Amino acid sequence: MLSDPSRGVNAAQQPYDLLIVGGGINGVGIARDAAGRGASVLLVEQHDLASHTSSASTKLIHGGLRYLEYYEFRLVREALIERERLLAIAPHIIWPLSFVLPHSKLVRPAWMLRMGLFLYDHLGGRMTLPRSRGVRLDRDPVGTPLRSDYRRAFIYSDGRVLDSRLVVLNAMDAREKGADIRTRTRLVAARRVDGVWEATIEDASGQQVVRARGLVNAAGPWVERILRDTLAIKTSKQVRLVKGSHIVVPRCFEGEQAYIFQNPDRRIVFAIPYERDFTLIGTTDIPWAADPGEVRIADDEVRYLCESVNRYFRKAVTPEDVVWTYAGVRPLYDDAAQNASAVTRDYVLDVDAPAGEGVLLSIFGGKITTYRRLAEHALEKLAPSLPVLGGAGWTASRPLPGGDLGPGGFDSAVVRLRAHAPFLSADDAWRLVRNYGTLAWEIVGTAQRHADLGEDFGGGLTAREVDYLIAREWAVTAEDILWRRSRRGLHIDGAGQARLERYLDARREAVRDSRSAMAG
Fold first, then answer.
1. Could you tell me if residue 286 is left (phi over 0), alpha (psi between -120 and 50 degrees) or otherwise beta?
2. SS (H, E, C) 20-53
3. Is 3.30.9.10 the CATH classification of the domain at 93-161+240-333?
4. Which residues are CB-neighbours of 9 under 8 A, at least 6 positions away?
5. How does pLDDT run across 269-288, given as a tens digit for each residue?
6. Separation between Cα atoms, residue 186 and residue 46, nearest integer Å
7. What region holds the FAD dependent oxidoreductase domain (predicted)?
8. In the CATH scheme, what architecture does the domain 409-518 have?
9. CA 20 to 30 Å from 160, out of 118, 209, 513, 515?
């Protein structure tokens, strides 16, 4: 979706309230909240939504059990409270998950684990998820995949999330409330002129100048670069880049539970059911000093992750088993911790508000679980300069698009979708509701048979879904569709992906022909 030149002219005459730079979870969360309070918002993202850090997470909505070891009690409490809120407002893309924590005598004593889990159960106040409990691994099915030398374990609950879809749904809701969301659009330059920000942005159609009363630097790993190179503003705050890498292997245990394993280096690694047929294993914590856009998993990280789970699983996982990997850079606030794993996951909001000039807010750190609360805090910081943002917060209880599943919740919605479209397989109906919630009905429409959904690219992905993603969710490329919107990349073979590329090429050609005809 390229920018509309006519909007650029209007924007140059009438300033937006907020120009947000960055289409990750923090940027779209702020855009949604601000637009819902009546602010005019323009968000620009240099690539696709969630194309970097926000799609490279461990896919969890969690309080951060291990952060208790670093005395991050405030962060854990806030995250636990937010976990409950997000489970309620996005039950299609966020749902409960139980974690099995085997006790290893070589790492932490059992009393420490029990104490940590007790705090975890109670720090957030009243919770809807089950509280932790101890199990004997030789008597419980969760012990079946584990080596016999592990006798005891603790089970606790957290949430899992379709992370890139969380970003897209926030952007969709922001747009529905009036925000202008522009992907593949970068901030070229910005300076304060006559009390507002005057910014040059660029997309495939060229450059435009827009104005805004406030600027939010939510560029994630690029936050310092924006300040230094684009805005020429000095700050005492620094970001510390830490690479986190994951591997995906064919499913290596039965059941819907996840596992959390302690390593001799005191780091933890998760093994999580992923996309029904696979297991996601991660993550690492490696200092990163290179370009955040060029991050890749290293061979020694693959070996580390395999060795981590092999200390626990009966059946060994080898690098040859890996079917997919991904890596991302976490832009953590630099608190001078020597160990990358110990760097705080809390966030810092830095405000630069000279009298009579456009306000600037830069975001350092943060985690996906607390994005909604971070957005509220950001607007509280901006409100003295932008009174339009001073209204009451509203995002804690308002469902994200598709999240209004109705009576019976997720399972009932799947049943209703199959009744509406009996030609859908149980797996396809489950996936559509899991991805889109009640918006799945918009994709299926009035189709009476599977062929009505158009070309089938494999893995349940059809032309009807692709058209929806392009029209409603800013998808442009096959990568956008396969890895960030539908996550069908692991399920579609090379021939299916090639058919998708040809379909997208044909769509682009049709758009070009239509524009040429209109111009003629």
1. beta
2. EECCCHHHHHHHHHHHHCCCCEEEECCCCCCCCH
3. yes
4. none
5. 999 999 999 999 999 999 99
6. 4
7. 17-372
8. Orthogonal Bundle (1.10)
9. 118
Strands 258-262 and 94-102: parallel
Q: Which residues contact 459 (CB under 8 A, 6 or more apart)?
A: 488, 491, 492, 496
Per-residue pLDDT reduced to its tens digit, 27-61: 999 999 999 999 999 999 999 999 999 999 999 99
Given a contact cutoff of 8 angstroms between Cβ atoms, the answer to whether 197 and 190 are in contact is: yes
Domain with CATH 3.50.50.60 in the chain: 16-52+165-238+345-389
What are the CA-CA distances from residue 57 to residues 107, 284, 403, 459, 502 (Å)?
A: 25, 11, 22, 23, 30
- SS3 sequence, 338-399? CCHHHCCCCEEEEEECCCCCCEEEEEEECCHHHHHHHHHHHHHHHCCCCHHHCCCCCCCCCC
Residue 251 backbone phi and psi in degrees, to 5 = -50, 130
The structure tokens listed for 236 are: 């005492």
Q: Which of 309, 271, 343, 296 is nearest to 56 (CA)?
A: 296
> Quick one: 16-52+165-238+345-389 is in which CATH superfamily?
FAD/NAD(P)-binding domain (3.50.50.60)
Q: What share of the chain is helix, strand, coil (3-state, %, to 5)?
A: 40, 25, 35
Q: What is the pLDDT of residue 340?
A: 58
CA 206 from centre of chain: 29
CA distance 163 to 50: 8
> How many other CB atoms are found less than 10 A from the CB of residue 501?
13
Half-sphere exposure of 233 (CA within 13 A, CB side): 24
Domain with CATH 3.30.9.10 in the chain: 93-161+240-333
Q: Is 458 exposed, middle or buried (0-12, 13-18, 19+ CB in 10 A)?
A: middle
319-343 per-position pLDDT tens digit:
999 999 999 999 988 876 656 555 6
Pairwise CA distance, residues 79 & 226, whole Å = 28
Any residues with CB less than 8 A from the CB of 429 and at least 6 apart, and which?
414, 417, 418, 421, 440
Around Cβ 195, how many Cβ atoms within 10 Å?
13
- In the DSSP assignment, the letter for residue 476 is -
Helix (H) or strand (E) holding 457: strand 456-458
